[in-house]
Write a structure and sequence with these properties.
heterodimer; A: 366 residues; Rossmann fold; 3 domains; B: 335 residues; alpha/beta; 2 domains; 4-stranded parallel sheet; 14 helices; 13% strand; globular
């Protein structure tokens, strides 16, 4: 059995590790490029969102490389994500690929669904091996995310632009290669130390921009024009609360016991939006309300025609908590240069706002 | 007397008789907005972000037109009507979104319908809504039962007498039925039976779809709609095409479309709004099914503010011509 799964940021790392430990052949589709997107867009119904098109592109590329079992996310009550599987499977079959599409539930009973699917794929490997493999995969994921958090802090203040990104990509491949817990730990600590030692500009106090919106475009840099890197290059510190390792930690292990990391965000959103509307719309509204004081601005990312985020955008415009929000819609038709221009203008606006604010504060002190 | 406004948009076409009965039993006067006009849409689209879909823009326009005509506005948030089905985010966020974009509106009364959360929650929601007008749970229950009966007889009327919601609502509210449309464009060709499928708020809003049904009748076609099928027929088609329904209104699209693609019609026209999440996938399922079957013609019309009337007419005419030619060829082959 040759297993593959679409890309979403660095999610391939844990999958690769899990299947390697279980001795299942894992086929990693090529990293997302324009080709992936063009392939996906060509065979997708026109009105669909970019996550569908990108993941379809991945699946086609994986099937070309010989994968015959494709794992895709699915489940009830999210947004149209839950319906992806039905259509993607038909598209692949019509293209003549003889592949089996398996949906991993991401809404209810996530962990059980993941475990049973991995067991099935691995040809009934014993449970202890599956659990140990998943545990190792999740530790890799957590390492990647811990490094990324440091990178987000270093990017805006490094003296030589690009150092952090370079270290980050080395770290990713080192983590990907690590075969046991010791190496993994050593690699992680090593790179975090290197990142901490990157020469920094001590003078600047970077602007802080929160980044929120739909899960996939937040986590897959190719679909959102590498917006985090670009902001870092402009000297902006990016704060993002969505990390895959956080998501897995809570939704696999803690949510079943009633511990919900998002309660605070939901409570903040409640005066404006009372209920979960699917996708990440509720969280987007909540993050704006919650961080209005803390951040200088918010970048709201959403795929074009994303239903939950459109509702969120409509509501976010009229909350009492005022903070500049830039909504960026991601689609295969949108050019990166246009997005960069908008980002630059947004950052300029935030700088001016901060200057006006501090000027006023100084005036008051004098 | 207290008045409650019901916007003539979105779920109005499916549930108006039910809501009207419920509120009137509680001694509330029900007012509705006028049918959609160009003005409604123009006003609605100024309030929401550009990416919002056409039916929601229309809905906001209707709310705006009700602003100083009533004491309350009723906007339900319908999540699921069957276990493990879910609705589009736009329906779930509708009351909150309307509050955000129409700050001047009278108080918005909402009710959340979610059968996944059990009967108790459903009853509580209904009482929570009725309580605004009558504290007595028994009276609210009476009103809810009457409303349910009204709904069942409304559905029955449509599927048995083969009426569209507009005709059925006219019947129920005692407005004389419009004369059947005489084919005004010379029917030199055999008449066709066309099923028009999609969400009720697109099929029956004559401004939004450029009087599509009326036009088809003018061309001499017999028009069938999703409401003319029984629950069972639509569910069977959903089960055949996709297994288990995922969306709350999947039966109106995949169910009705799947049924008509196999039965009694010459062509199926699907109507969807641009950017509609559920429909972008469901119409694809139907398109693929039609392609596999190759017996019934299928066409999908996507509507948005910038759709031009002429474009829609041209496509309709071409579609009907194609069907007529097919039929003629089939007749010729038989002879």
């Amino acid at each position: 059995m040759r297993v593959s799964t679409p890309h979403m940021g660095h999610v391939y790392i844990p999958f690769k590790a899990i299947f390697k430990r279980l001795g299942v052949e894992f086929i990693m589709p090529p990293i997302n490029t324009q080709r992936t997107l063009s392939l996906g867009a060509r065979y997708s119904p026109e009105g669909l969102c970019i996550p569908f098109k990108m993941t379809l592109g991945n699946l086609i590329e994986a099937a070309d490389m010989g994968a015959n079992t494709l794992l895709i996310p699915g489940g009830d009550g999210i947004c149209r994500l839950g319906y992806y599987g039905k259509v993607q499977e038909q598209v692949l079959h019509n293209l003549g690929y003889d592949t089996e599409v398996i949906q991993i539930g991401v809404s209810e009973q996530k962990f059980r669904s993941l475990m049973s699917i991995i067991r099935k794929v691995s040809g009934d490997a014993p449970w202890y091996r599956i659990i140990s493999a998943i545990r190792f995969g999740l530790s890799k994921l957590a390492s990647v995310d811990r490094v990324e958090r440091v990178v987000q802090k270093v990017r805006p203040v490094e003296l030589v632009k690009g150092t952090a990104n370079q270290l980050y990509s080395h770290a990713i491949s080192a983590i990907d290669k690590a075969d046991d817990y010791d190496t993994l730990k050593r690699v992680e600590v090593d790179y975090i130390n290197q990142l901490e030692r990157v020469p920094r500009d001590k003078q600047v106090q970077p602007l802080i921009v929160g980044i929120t919106g739909e899960f996939y475009v937040l986590l897959e840099p190719f679909s959102s024009f590498d917006i985090e890197q670009e902001l870092g290059r402009m000297g902006v510190e990016v704060r993002r609360s969505t990390f895959v390792s956080e998501w897995t930690k809570f939704s696999f292990f803690l949510n079943p016991f009633g511990i919900n990391e998002k309660k605070r965000i939901h409570r903040a959103a409640r005066p404006y939006l009372k209920r979960d509307i699917g996708g990440d719309g509720w969280e987007s509204v909540g993050e704006k309300v919650l961080h209005a004081e803390e951040y200088d601005g918010i970048v709201h990312l959403a795929p074009f025609t994303c239903m939950p985020e459109i509702i969120a955008q409509n509501i976010m415009l009229s909350t009492r908590e005022k903070i500049p929000v830039l909504t960026v819609l991601c689609d295969e038709q949108i050019a990166k240069a246009g997005v960069l221009t908008r980002l630059e203008a947004f950052v300029d606006l935030l700088i001016r706002k901060r200057r006006a604010h501090s000027g006023r504060a100084q005036g008051a002190a004098a | 007397m207290t008045t409650i406004g019901i916007p003539r948009a979105l779920l109005y076409y499916q549930y108006y008789p039910m809501w009207k009965t419920f509120f009137e039993h509680l001694g509330v006067e029900v007012v509705t907005s006028e049918p959609t006009s160009r003005n409604t849409l123009a006003k609605g689209s100024t309030r929401v972000v550009a990416d919002t879909c056409l039916p929601v823009k229309v809905f906001v326009g209707h709310v705006l037109s009700l602003v100083d005509k009533c004491d309350y506005i009723f906007i339900p948030a319908i999540r699921s009507l069957k276990s493990r089905t879910y609705n589009c985010a736009k329906f779930l966020g509708l009351p909150d979104m309307t509050r955000a974009v129409v700050p001047e509106s009278p108080p918005i009364l909402e009710i959340e319908i979610d059968v996944n959360r059990g009967k108790r929650y459903l009853y509580q929601s209904i009482y929570g809504l009725g309580r605004h007008f009558n504290w007595n749970p028994l009276r609210v229950r009476e009103a809810a039962t009457a409303a349910m009966e009204a709904f069942i007889s409304y559905r029955g009327l449509m599927s048995e007498s083969r009426l569209t919601p507009l005709q059925a609502i006219d019947d129920i509210t005692g407005i004389p039925r419009r004369e059947p449309v005489e084919p005004s464009i010379a029917p030199t060709t055999p008449s066709a039976t066309i099923a028009v499928i999609g969400h009720a708020y697109l099929l029956y809003d004559e401004h939004v779809n450029y009087e599509l049904i009326h036009r088809l009748e003018q061309y001499g076609a017999r028009v069938l709609t999703p409401e003319m099928l029984t629950e069972h027929e639509r569910e069977a088609a959903v089960a055949r095409l996709v297994g288990r329904a995922y969306w709350t209104y999947e039966e109106d699209v995949v169910g009705a479309g799947g049924h008509y693609l196999q039965n009694e019609v010459d062509g199926v026209i699907g109507i969807m709004a641009f950017g509609c999440g559920p429909d972008s996938l469901m119409m694809e399922i139907l398109r693929r099914e039609a392609g596999n079957q190759q017996t019934t013609a299928f066409m999908c019309i996507t509507l948005e503010e910038h759709t031009s009337e002429t474009g829609v007419i041209t496509r309709l005419e071409a579609f009907l011509d194609m069907i007529h030619r097919r039929k003629r060829r089939r007749v010729a082959l038989c002879v």
